[in-house]
Amino acid sequence: MPRHSVPQQPSWLRPRLVVAFVVATAGLVTAVWLPTRNDTADAAERNRRDDGRPSRSLPAFADDFSGRRGSTVDPAKWALRTDRVDNGVQFSESVRNARLDGAGHLVIVLRGEDDGVSTARLYSRSSLRGTTGRVEARIKAPAGAGLKPTFELVAAGRPGGGALNVLAEPVTDDDFHTYAVEWRPGGFVLSVDGARVRQESLPGVDTGQPFRLALTLTVGDDRAEADLPARMVVDAVSFSGADASAEPTAPPTATPPTTAPTTAPTTEPPATTEPPATTEPPATTEPPTTAPTTTPPAATTPPTTPPSSAPAAAAWKPFTDYVAGQRVTFKGAVYQVLETHTSLPGWEPTALPALFKKV
């Protein structure tokens, strides 16, 4: 058959057209998948880490929110709510609502949606405990009506057990401020940048009960006045606690050894005044004058021994039992132990001001 009479293939079967179709389809799929990549990866990571393991009660907690820009929070430290509440607020685990900025900050974004607002609410994954302790966070709170930034201590394991909002009186000057609460049995003291704000005792929040930390930015009753989107930026969060039940037993063991040696030598010299019994013979008046002069020098030596027997401050070490009042050294400085505890890695004196005081 002549070449010119060979039937030609249909145009839609030509290789160039097939390749162009495949490339166009791949580009469309990529364009749809990329915007949701972070959300899917973050959700998968959280589901992988949330393996149903039992929650622990920790005496210390800290997070400086270091990580890659646009990534989610550390799933070993935080869990995120994913439900909707009655006032139309949708809590989301998406990085659109809670993400790291790559500069050591957590950014919580409150957004307006077609059917309400969306935001993020973070809980510390492990519960925290301490009959005495201190919680603090460095936060930049947004300004504007209708916004409700919160940093809470929420009772763990007791539904409706109470919550304490440390950020109840935020400073909205577009700068970071340190919000803290310290407690001992019977009450809480709230402060901002080291200045006491108020002291209170809450019936639903007990010192010593396990609690969780919670961070969120939501709307108040005047939500219509809120200018959205709004952002709350968190620089760092930390907690250090101790069991106050061990405090009464520690001072008695520390004080007797120091007081007994000092008081005993001071009472012995008065006993040397009994030799006035030698004053009965008139001729023995001179020896009493020499005896008291010879015995007092012996009494002056004991005061020099207690300082030499006092234990010197030892270098701080982890996995060591420390009692209140004891002194340790760390990086060339001397610190006094404020609370009886057993040290762990990361509990250096410079990191836990609730347990150590520089002297």
What attributes characterize this protein structure?
359 residues, alpha+beta, Jelly Rolls, Seminal Fluid Protein  PDC-109 (Domain B), 3 domains, ten-stranded mixed β-sheet, 32% strand
Secondary structure layout plus pairing:
Layout: H1 15-33, H2 37-49, E1 57-58, E2 60-63, E3 78-80, E4 89-91, E5 98-100, E6 106-113, E7 116-119, E8 121-124, E9 127-128, E10 132-140, E11 147-155, E12 163-165, E13 177-184, E14 187-192, E15 195-200, E16 211-219, E17 230-242, H3 250-271, H4 286-300, H5 305-309, E18 314-315, E19 321-322, E20 327-330, E21 333-337, E22 341-342, E23 356-358
Parallel strand pairs: 1-9, 4-7, 18-20
Antiparallel strand pairs: 2-17, 3-8, 5-6, 6-7, 6-17, 8-16, 10-13, 10-17, 11-12, 11-16, 13-14, 14-15, 19-22, 20-21, 21-23
GO cellular component, one term: extracellular region
Biased composition (Basic and acidic residues): 42-54
GO molecular function: carbohydrate binding; hydrolase activity, hydrolyzing O-glycosyl compounds
